[in-house]
């Protein structure tokens, strides 16, 4: 009698792990080394906090309110939590955008604004981005610029953006969020796949920390 290699239980297991495999495909890409000057870093459950000594200057983006521009070093009194993605992403970007919105909602008592930067500006208009972000709770703002400016900004922040793959019909990119402090200083890289509870706790600690010693981040 021939052995049955694909039992109903095995087929069910393969179907169950497929979405996880799709997400893992996006988040295992190694990011390039950080290119900003760093004075001190602290490892926390959801990522790395960075006390950079050089602001990230010279990057301008149009916003989805279509009436203003966002400058990387002009956020004098607020913090920015940034995710790089694109609106036609089949599963990964919607999931991580929803999670970003949840984190920002949980931190609404902090001076923190969540941003979604399109890595596919040729196909993502400001209106399409606004409609995409309206699906999620909170008040995320979409940012759009030319491809070269977006890629340069991402590289400065150690965010990987790959080329469009016709075979797989997606753009491979990093799954991390970037935390910019007032004045455009890089303050952290947050793992988007970390538990939401850890993300909220670590971000709140980072925003409230003054001297950036570990005792300040409890």
Account of the protein in words:
The chain is of the alpha+beta class and 218 residues long. It has one domain (32-217): Glutaredoxin (3-Layer(aba) Sandwich). The chain is built from 5 helices and 11 strands. The chain has helices at 8-27, 92-106, 126-133, 147-156, 196-208, and strands spanning 38-44, 47-52, 60-63, 69-71, 79-85, 112-118, 141-144, 161-165, 170-173, 176-180, 186-191. Strand 8 and strand 9 (170-173) form a beta hairpin. The longest helix is centred in the N-terminal third of the chain and has 20 residues, at 8-27. It is globular. Mean pLDDT is 79; it is low at 1-6, 8-31 and 210-218.
Keywords, separated by commas or semicolons:
alpha+beta, single chain, 5 helices, Glutaredoxin, nine-stranded mixed sheet, disordered N terminus, two-stranded antiparallel ribbon, 27% strand, 218 residues, 30% helix
Low-confidence stretches: 1-6, 8-31, 210-218
Largest sheet: 9 strands, mixed
Order of helices and strands: HEEEEEHEHEHEEEEH
Percent of residues in helical segments? 25-40%
CATH class: Alpha Beta
Give the name of the CATH superfamily. Answer: Glutaredoxin
Tally of discrete structural domains: 1
Architecture (CATH level 2) name: 3-Layer(aba) Sandwich
CATH topology label = Glutaredoxin
Radius of gyration, rounded?
19 Å
**Strand content range:** 25-35%
Query: What's the overall geometry?
Result: globular
Instruction: Compute the separation of the termini in Å.
Output: 63 Å
**Total strand segments:** 11
Q: Total number of helical segments?
A: 5
In spatial order, strands of the major sheet run: 1-2-11-10-5-6-7-3-4
